[in-house]
Amino acid sequence: MKKYLLLSQLLIVIFFITGCEDSYDKVPLILYNEIDPYILEFEEHILTEANGKVDIEVFDSKNSQLIQNEIFDDVLSKNPKLMIINPVDRLSSYTIIEKAKQENIPIIFINREPLEADLDLWDQLYYLGAPAENSAVIQSEMIKDLFGSPNDLSELDKNEDGIIQLVLFKGEQGHQDAEIRSEVVIRELEDYGYSIHTQILICDWERPIAYDKMNELLASLEIDIELVISNNDAMAIGAIDAMIDNDLFVDLDEDGIINRESDIWIPVIGIDGIEEALEYIETGYLFGTVINDSQRMSEILIELTHAIINGDDLTELSFDMIDGKYIWVDYHRFERD
Amino acid sequence: MFKFFKNPSIRKSILIPIISIFFFSLLLATTTTFLSYQKTTSDFAKESSKEINKQIVLNFDNYIESVINTLNYIQQQTVVYGLDDNNDVLFDIYKQAADVQPDIESVVLLDINGNVLVSSSYKAISLENLTYRNWFIEATSDKSIYHFSSPHIQDVFSDSTANVITLTNTADYYIDGEKLTGVIVIDINFSSIINLAGTTNLGDGGHLIIFDNDNSLIYSNNNSCNSYECVTLDIASDIIIGGKSVEVDGIAMYANINTLKDTRWRLATFGNIEIIDQTRENNLLTLVIILLGTFVLTLLASNYISRRISSPINKLKDHMQSIEKGDFYKKIEIDGQKEVVVLANSFNSMIEEIKTLMEKLVLEQKEKRKSEFIALQNQINPHFLYNTLDSIVYLSENKMNEKVMEMVIALSKFFRISISRGKNIILLKEEIEHARNYLLIQQIRYNNKFNYKFEIAKDVENYKVVKLSLQPIIENALYHGINTEYDEGSIIIRAFSEGEKLIFEVEDDGYGITDEKINELYQNIKIETKSNSVGLRSVYQRLKLYYGDEADFFIESELDVKTIVRFEIPLERAK
Q1: Residues B506-524: what's their mean pLDDT?
Q2: Which of A329, B83, B145, B511 has its CA 20 to 30 A from that of B544?
Q3: Cα torsion angle, B210, B212, B218, B223, sign
Q4: Where residue A14 falls among pLDDT bands split at 50, 70, 90?
Q5: How far apart are CA B292 and CA B298, in angstroms?
Q6: Nearest CA in chain A to B24
Q7: What rounded mean pLDDT belongs to chain B?
Q8: What is the tens place of the pLDDT at every residue in A100-146?
Q9: Cβ contact, residue pair A6, B54, below 8 Å
């Protein structure tokens, strides 16, 4: 009896030492980079929306696919019911998809769209994002309103040469959104008939890089800049900060607001609609932005997550799903009233 | 099992708990140590293997990034400067890019029909239609990504033998203000990839492989791996991504598979962890040896200790058993624990005491028999009988029939009580009756030369007393105490209780006895010497035999006034 007791205690101790795998009820949300203000805002919306419905656990890949792979591998071993992944490198999604298919764990990709061929590998994959082209089209519409007819440009053509001198801040080279946004906005402007002179600065979506590259450009360039287009708000704000330092924005009456009529300014147009961008629009520094509706996306994301986890019928959701995997949320134009 | 634990011997009760406690705690300690060691080493193996993999992947990532940066730079320059008649500016830029980075074999810009627009190399362009090349088809099919080809013989030129990887992407350029899209082709010398992988230490048999998204081999630094057969490639394509312990050709390895940034490639490292497994086995062996060694030592030590403790006790037990059989004369000698030695000594003293007591008992029995014999003599004192019978003869000669009758009755009663059917203890009133008959006979014999009186407390009459204890004292008072020559002597006999004692007194008003004489009498009575005070001594001894130390005997005297002989017995024993 005594011996059995000891033996059972021994087994209990061993059991605790070796540890036991408990069930993992959370939904991992693996973000590409929490330094990106748009991503941070998106995360906040998701968490607010998820509150009480889905238990989300956030991981930050710190803009490294290596780290993301490691997080993915760790999370996978916990055998979650579903994963939400914002890829760092869209080409690597292939590997993640193969592995998830092997382990039978559905994935919702957000923000960066994997290759179509990769998404077609399995029917348990979803992509939630905004149509990149749409944002660029909205940007070009705002520009058309600003500069007017190609044959008779508005006073924003400061040197009156009939050509728009513009600087385009591009996100990561090879990033699908960056490529499409840049290409489409230029194409739209050219197709409308504008003569443009484009200077492209690749700044990896980051505000400090944009600030540095703009400063560099302003120091070396003789020509005037008449328009700044950015693939996202963060880079637009970096560019504005550099232009403020170089007196391209001057608040002459010192009322804290850039007045279109009386102060010195250059139109800057961003994308995303992050909190800080809205403040810059309020004070007149940022002309406008295209809101990437992360609020609506978060609602959809949580609804979809909830439905997948509970095995609900995905044809009866409050949003449209194309080909059973793509969910598109349109952009909105936003500028000062 | 329960039977086994019931009333265990000292040895067992020491051995079983010590051995089981030792064994289980040792087992526990060994198991936990080994498990935690195993966990730590396997975690360590995984971690270090992961770190090595990450380091290699980072090297590749950095290299790929630098090549892409070059491509971006060329794309930008191409769109900025455009093409003029002799393309000098772009040629210089392309050539410079290829020259600065020695791993770049060539940079070529093709138009959408596969015609070469700018080339950094002077080599002759291939005559084949370049639009059929895989890298050309891929570049034009998806503009948003960079395309890295598998290693192949450089095929953009007609007579190159270089083994290259081709990086392609579309590029915009202007000709006479018209914007066109072409394809940039950068050929990277494959040896640079080999160099990146070269110096990593993955242990004996450890190696890395790079493979494409269709699981075709790009590169391996393992000689036994080729594009037709590669064991580790199959393992890696099964794992897809992440880390896993695997066995390759009977060698324990830890596989790590990671993606390479901006490409469709994956890099797998196989690190040899055999050494860790071996260390673990050695460790386990050492632990088991220590466990068994300690267990054997414990077994021996506890056996020795329990034997040392139990053997003196067993010796004592054997000795006791021999005493049970009646051998009182063997002394036990034990070396061992203090407690057992003390126990043995006490045991020896106890046996000694028992021996003394037994001898004393034997002696007492002898004494008792002797005094009983004397008492028996007293019962039928022949002198007393002769004298009494003489007196009766004398009385009958003088026709004193009344007196004769009185005397014969008294004598008869005297003897009846003396004998009392052999009983030693009789009622106090019977003893008094005995004394009274004795005195009656003596009074007649001595012709009323003395008188006597009994003062017996009513409440003590039914107490019991040793037979013939009073008569010898009265006889003593009669012969030695009273003075019958001058006047009538008188004797008072008392019996009463006082506290816890029953007291008898015989008082006479004779000459009295000096103190020295009293001491001499005490000596005679209480200490064994041959004496003439046989009567008193026999009374004293019998009292002591029956009542022990609680019985006592006193003589008090006042010269020419009185002498009191008193004895006391415990009241409790008289009931």
Answers
A1: 85
A2: B511
A3: positive
A4: low
A5: 10
A6: A6
A7: 85
A8: 999 999 999 999 889 999 999 999 999 999 988 999 999 999 999 99
A9: no
Give the Cα separation of B531 and B134 in Å (integer). Answer: 151
| CATH superfamily placement of domain A21-130+294-330 | Response regulator (3.40.50.2300)
Q: Which residue from B minimizes the CA distance to A197?
A: B80
Residue A73 has its nearest CB partner, among B31, B242, B263, at: B242
Which pair of tokens denotes residue A163?
A: 């050509």
CA B568 to chain centre: 62
What's the mean pLDDT in B113-131? 90
Q: How many angstroms away from the CA of A73 is the closest CA of chain B?
A: 5
Give this prediction's pTM: 0.65
Query: Nearest by CB to B242, which of A76, A174, A179?
Result: A76
**Which CATH code for domain B381-574?**
3.30.565.10
Task: Answer yes or no: same fold for B82-193 and B381-574.
Answer: no
Report pLDDT for B379: 60
Whether the CB of A215 is below 8 Å from some CB of chain B: the reply is no
Could you state, in order of their start, the residue ranges of all structural domains in chain B? 82-193, 381-574
CA A75 to chain centre: 23
CB contact under 8 A, A1 and B258: no
Listed by start position, the domains of chain A span: 21-130+294-330, 132-291
The ipTM assigned to this model is 0.78
Write out the CATH class of domain B82-193: alpha beta
Is 90 exceeded by the pLDDT of residue A20?
A: no
Give the CA distances from residue B89 to residues B179, B273, B563, in Å, rounded to whole numbers and listed in that order.
18, 55, 166
B28 and A CB contact within 8 Å: yes
A76 shares contact with chain B (CB less than 8 Å): yes
Q: Give the pLDDT band (50/70/90) at residue B206.
A: confident
User: Does the fold of domain A132-291 match that of domain A21-130+294-330?
Assistant: yes
Residue A117 contacts B, CB cutoff 8 Å = no
CATH of domain A132-291: 3.40.50.2300
DSSP letters, B147-211, are EEPPPEE--SBSS---EEEEEEEEEEEEETTEEEEEEEEEEEEHHHHHHHHHT----TT-EEEEE
The CA distance from A187 to the nearest CA of chain B, in Å, is 11
Query: Which of A146-150, B377-381, B401-405 is least confident?
Result: B377-381
Q: Give B546's Cβ-side CA count (13 Å radius).
A: 22
